[in-house]
Amino acid sequence: MKISKEARRTSRQLFRACFADGKLDEARARSVVALVTEKKPRGYIGILENFARLLRGESERQNAVVESATAISDDMRFQLKAGLAKKYGRELALQFQVVPELLGGIRVKVGSDVWDGSVKARLEALKNQLA
User: Fold this and answer.
1) In the chain, where the domains are located
2) Could you tell me the end-to-end alpha-carbon distance of the chain, in angstroms, rounded to an integer?
3) For residue 22, is pLDDT > 80?
């Protein structure tokens, strides 16, 4: 469903109002949803849909998924966490997964950013070059 420019602008303003000290305040976000649902301004469904999309995007940017072929040592986990915090300028919640199909190396996903240093990706790139 396409939403109006006004609804999009309103949802962005409400989204920005949900931040405190540079972090998303969940209580503010809940109160915004309750207020919009109660008042039902013009285009409120579009406002809520876009607001939810913005919240999902912010949530994805706060989390990182690290996939590896084998379990990662605690020292490597600490180094990854520090490196990602330095790159993004904030602490990220890391989720570690073992994916044997990668064969070796790691793949890191933060929001829409993906860094793939796996053996599987290298083999696929080599296959594409030779084809």
Assistant:
1) 5-60, 62-130
2) 41
3) no
